[in-house]
């Protein structure tokens, strides 16, 4: 079976983006323009069975192009299988496993280190776990990660009352209280294009956590967010008080019917203004108007951020980080 497969190097171009758009594992993080804005070295392949493309593979590599190192803003990379809805269940399992088996073994031979961050929909990773299963060769290690996903279908039409919202009813007591306070105090949300102010707020947010980000880095962030918005890959919202003071920003990457929470920022002196909750909650109907039915809050893997995101009542979904190191490299 394996000799029927090949990995063919490719460019991140319109054909790539078209493949990603139809893949159940496609995300904005592997879109050609998203990667171009990172200015990183990468290797991209199509996994082919004969002349048929059955998966795409994106690897962020080091400067020597010998190690697959990933990037902190590329939340999901690695393998994106083709749409296989036309296959029955047994055929799906067979194709996914066979493609991953070939890719896993190829990467283990080609690179000194491999770091992959798979899409949550890729749940069967046995092919990686079985590399060098019967010998002492290097093996892939797997770390489970988690995210919270909200269903936004209910926001496609205006809600007559908060209590009619499943998302509201499944939120924590404190989050429901914050949502009500925000509405009562006339906190409002609007689409924002003030990318410079957003970057400034982000710097303040990080500084409050003891992380200093240079002005040059903040300028780069503002340019990148602006470019993604101009290309239709991202939208940004700002939450302001009844006095029109902006307290919070949130950016959301867009891919088909799914949005991904990306960067957020709050003014430290306005933490009690309820804008931090509103910039998410009030974004739900605005995203639904854009055709978004699912919001991935992108990571609940640290205690503080995790509990905040989970307080909106989303479902917990696991995904996998996979790593291989050659000790003799």
Automatic annotation (TrEMBL):
Protein name, as recorded: GNAT family N-acetyltransferase
Domain of life: Bacteria
Keyword Transferase annotated: yes
GO-annotated molecular function: transferase activity
Keyword terms, alphabetized: Transferase
Species: Pseudoalteromonas rubra
Residue ranges occupied by any BioF2-like acetyltransferase domain in the UniProt entry: 176-299
One Pfam family in the UniProt entry: Acetyltransf_6
